[in-house]
Amino acid sequence: MPLIFSSTRSLAVACAALAALTLTGCDDRQIDSMLDALRQTFKAFFDSVKPDVLLLKGLTPGVSTLEQVREQMGKPETERVFEDGSRRLEYPRGPQGLKTYMVDIGPNGRLVAITQALTAENFAKVRIGESQDDVRRLLGKPGQVAAYRLKKETVWSWKWFEGGVTQEAYFNVHFGPDGRVSTTSRSDVMRGH
User: pLDDT tens across 37-73, in order?
Assistant: First the structure.
């Protein structure tokens, strides 16, 4: 759980630093600066764990602005800016989360669409020979990356809600030594025995 652990640790460090500065007699400007940093850290932590219904609340295609999306959803994992001025913001939902939202912003700075990237339809779009960047643009940040030196391949995996008997599964993309897709696969989520 690196995202939550990292955010929780950052929040604890910010609180400890604020307490230490207060006890050492800092001036008001230093305390205000620390309070701002603490607020930003707390907001980033909350954005990373808040339920989807709150994450997406009030965002309307054609109406909401890029600034409103950032205020509501927080800092994206990545932000791609295209030649026409449009953007795609990536929001993976926690470490090993079952959803990754892609937020498309038009050249006019308004929300175009919010789509959930981890779906069977999107997985079917991954093609042999595509680059890692192509796959990342389509599916977002993988939850796991494994390098197999003897096989000379790297495997990116996303946990997703497959439905059916097991509910959750992994979709895996295998990259050859050239960094291009060589195959895809599916694997079960292993539970404690």
Answer: 777 776 666 666 677 888 899 999 999 999 999 999 9
Q: Please state which CATH class domain 120-188 belongs to.
A: alpha beta
Backbone angles phi, psi at 83, to 5 degrees: -55, -35
Structure tokens at 52: 């989807």
Domain boundaries, the chain: 1-49, 50-116, 120-188
pTM: predicted TM-score of the whole model, two decimal places: 0.74
Alpha-carbon dihedral sign for residues 76, 145, 133, 121: negative
Q: What are phi and psi of 72, to 5 degrees?
A: -75, -45
Residues 90-116 have pLDDT tens digits of: 999 866 778 999 999 999 999 999 999
Nearby residues of 59 by Cβ (< 8 Å), 6 or more positions away:
68, 69, 72, 73, 111, 114
CATH class assigned to 50-116:
alpha beta
How far is residue 191 from each of residues 84, 102, 146, measured CA to CA in Å?
Answer: 46, 29, 19
Query: Which stretches of 74-147 are DSSP H helices?
Result: 120-123, 132-139
User: What is the layout of strands, in order, in the sheet containing 144-148?
Assistant: 144-148, 153-163, 167-175, 181-188
3-state secondary structure of 45: helix
Cα(69)–Cα(34) distance, rounded to whole angstroms?
Answer: 25
Q: Note whether 50-116 and 120-188 share their fold.
A: yes
